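Review session, final week

We close the course with one last complete record, chosen because it touches almost every idea we covered. It is nitric oxide dioxygenase, a protein from Micromonospora vulcania with 371 residues. Go through it on your own first, then we will talk.
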Amino acid sequence: MDNVARLLKESWTLVEGDRDRLSGHFYARLFLLDPALRQLFPVQMTGQGDRLLEAIITAIHAIDDPESFDEFLRSLGRDHRKYHVADQHYVTVGVALLDALRSIAGEGWDLEYDQAWRDAYGVLSARMMAGAAADEGPPFWHAEVLTHERHGPDIAVLTCRALQYPLRWRAGQYVSLEVPRYHPRVWRNYSMANAPNDDNVLEFHVRAPDAGWVSGALVRRVKPGHLLRLAAPMGSMTLDRASERDILCVAGGVGLAPINALVEELASYNRTRWVHVFYGARQAADLYGLARLQELVAVHPWLSVTPACSDDPDFDGERGEIPDVVARYGPWTTHDCYVSGSARMVRATLRVLAADEVPPPHIRYDTFGAI
């Protein structure tokens, strides 16, 4: 597998700089091979190619770690049930992908690269199909929006209840979500902001600073009573209940959502582990979840919350980028660390933790965008 991983990464350099042509060629070939597949995709394909390539890159890097690679692919297979993907579709996708890679790579492509991609895709598709076959739940859940609160011009906190079937998740996980009323067949990932409960109610924190389709609809158009669709929960940014280490949580913006869920779960059983939450935003007005955290601090002596603002000179608290604030309070070498926020914020926080020599297995993170 080491040699296959090397060949995959090496050959990827031949096409990485021409992603638009790669995705365009792939989809043209895919729909030519099986025109019926077009109905599984959104009407507007803008951005669809980027998500395909991100999945490929993730798989390429995951292949270095067979254990997490296996679980990642099985989860991906379960998740793809929401698209109504059948086993025969994996064969068609494999043919289209290899054809696109060969065409874009040009003369640099050779038989070794071709065989490595064939072997890797065979493993990928087999494990995805196994994950889908083993899943006993529905392809997706219908959920009714219960509440919707706006926080400023581009942030919303909403709750919904999954209907018909229990939806089981762990604090720190995320689901893929669709707003069929406005953007059918367009799915985006959002973390649950609450721990599991018997009422099947989920909370989401959504930011839409621009005209993003799903996030824009969730912030500006969705109302109580509307129906959403939720796919199977995914993600491994979950608590290790066997650990006795204290906990560091770092949240930036709406990255607070999974951190909120982790703290809520800890509140149900923790008595011995100190939990330090660092919560950052640009302006004090953007710290929409601070009051709720402070209520928890008032009743749980093991919990501390440190808010910080990077661009608010009037803020009466820590100022600066949240990774820099975390660094000032370190070291965090003996902690379990959870980080959630933008890609830039997560990268900077991971550098702080690396400088503190926190063992990588003690770090879990969730990022909104490529890491």
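Two points worth writing down before the exam:
The chain has three domains: 2-134, 141-230, 247-368.
Residues 141 and 165 are 7 Å apart (CA to CA).
Good luck, everyone.
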